[in-house]
Amino acid sequence: MKATVAALAARELAGRRVATPGGLAARAIVTAALTELDTVSETDPFKTPAGEAANVYAAIADATPGGRQIWLTAHYDGVGDRDAVHRPGASDNASGVAVVLEAARLLKHRLPGDVGLSVALLDAEEIGALGSAHHAARLAAEGRTPLIINVDGAGELNEAVSVEAGGDAMPILAALDSAGKTVGVPLRAGQIASDNRQYVAAGLAAVGVGAGMPGYHTEGDTAERVRPDTLTAMASLVVATVEHLATQHTNSSTQTFGAGTMSEPLNELPVMVIGAGPVGLAAAAHLAARNVDFLVLESGDAVGAAIRQWGHVRLFSPWRYNIDSAARALLEQSGWSAPDADVNPTGAELVERYLAPLAATEQIRARIRLGHKVTAISRVGVDRVRSRSREFAPFLIRVEVDGQLTDLHARAVIDATGTWNTPNVLGASGLPAYGEAEATAFIDHALPDVLGAARATYAGKHTLVVGAGYSAVNTMLSLAELAEQEPDTRVTWAIRTGSAARSYGGGDADALPARGALGTRLKDLVAAGRIELVNQFSTRQIRTLSDGTVEVESVDARDVKKIVTADRIVAATGFRPDHSIASELRLDLDPVLGATRELAPLIDPNEHSCGTVPPHGVDQLSHPEPGYFAIGAKSYGRAPTFLMATGYEQARSVVAALAGDWEAARAVQLDLPETGVCSTSLPGEEADSGGCGSSCGSAEPEAVAVTAEQDSGCCGTPVAEPVPVKVGLATGLSGGLLSEPLAIVSADGGSGCCG
How far is CA 614 from CA 350, 510, 603, 672, 723, in A? Predict the structure, then answer.
């Protein structure tokens, strides 16, 4: 490989500019190299503004009819010498040509008969990637849709190989990921602004890989600086990727997994969305918009099942902030009458005016399966331990329907089940308090309908509300109203911290007036003695007494005891994710939050306030298990900074990636209104709040860029000016930004958010 680099970077080639003697000499070198591989090469000339150029093609291994075709590509032209300065173009891109030629040599006799391999050595990349545009047009005219791996730069491996993908490139990315692990070559985000983009523009699946070095396009890009170990690493990566693609094709066509045989290709299976709440249905809307086959599995008997349990609660945010962009587009096509954008809906109205009509649209209604409770997710014939061909095995989703178990298969899984069904315990240490299980009959969790269906349960009773988030606030305000009508009704409020300032929030400074008013009303009620506040309360034990009441005991670090006796307990202590259904998948969860390891540092309430959580997408939500994504409240684990708008953006990004549109997938953005509520540094109220208010709020409010205040994992607000943030395995291309401002508040899947 080093000899090829030296030959192409030689001074006499004068930088290999297109349509120059040096460019023609370079073409002769690569043609001769292909001949040495015992292949028949083809020269394909085309016109450019600089003169005639030509690509050189060679078939390394032919595929049987209907087989998978893979092309390895690299450009052999350079920028050319200028002003008597020699610009050798060794890294850019003599090294890429050398890697492709070496990979072709190694793969020539190593591929199965149903996988074909060809090489395209391209001209005129440096004047607008004209060679790849010409080749892509030819492939399209011939009706061919191969997978493209383009190598641009193999001079210096600086920590990791950069990768950029486009089109329906999921198979290539999966193969690259496996190959990198196989040969020990790490991958990272990186722009490969090269021929791969022309193939993507033509609708082909293409990935660009590169390990360039500083000084390309200059006299410093010499053959001496190109590292032999980098050439070897890149060639090994390309070879392993092609081999994984070959195995992938065989497996997806007629691969036996365990006891069953999947005869249909993996990409013909649907994407499975679990949970028909706002974020799950948003994912469905984006899948429908991109014509990606999908099913939505909902355990309840109607969409928005969790939200219906707090349908009496009014959201902080008006309608304009509670509707996903793709969902709105589908609804408008169906003749939907949009609610007043400035009205704050209740949970019931959110379901009736938005989720139910969305689920009834032509594009979604036939794809929803109600009463389908997912009990486990695995892969067909592959448990968590088995690695071989794992990423090519279909997902197996075990579902309980009418008491019977059945298995469904999917190409990918979007888990939007939320956290509503897994509330946090009352015990202050994250463990149930002593006696908590025995006192279950006396305990309700977030947002009981105190003034409606549950009125008789609370009227004339003493209720202890534990928690500092907005679920607790809403419940106490309702209890205070009930006390006006039922004088014997009493309310005690227990929080772990020494101050309730976080729960009182920003007041008039809050950008969402409905939310600010709640905190102000609560503060007034406490000041008037209508709600008794007990601070520094850490629940240790609950005792059921013979008179039908419960005694709740707090013991702090100094062994100081406090006891509250009440008729009822409302545990507004937040929620936590349940990852047990994915126990046979390979998840990479942060040990603190239970979010993905990549996402956790961005949302850690020990480090971040509400206003500093950045937009994020598919790359922060990915696990070692390719194709599995938890989105919505569940994705945040126990972090209290989740916003419903964030869930919508997660859905958009993940679906774009599954559709192969990595440009859009990695252009993530949130556009949210300012809020007057800022943040104080944690610690203290995480378990009590579980969300709204746990890390949001300060005694002296100040405007911040993004604010998230949530209780059960989905309330909040934020920023005035959208700032696109590109993250992860970047494509280097812009796009995929939200079409309209989004904001906070509401519910996700089964997560059950508060208003």
Answer: 27, 20, 8, 12, 10
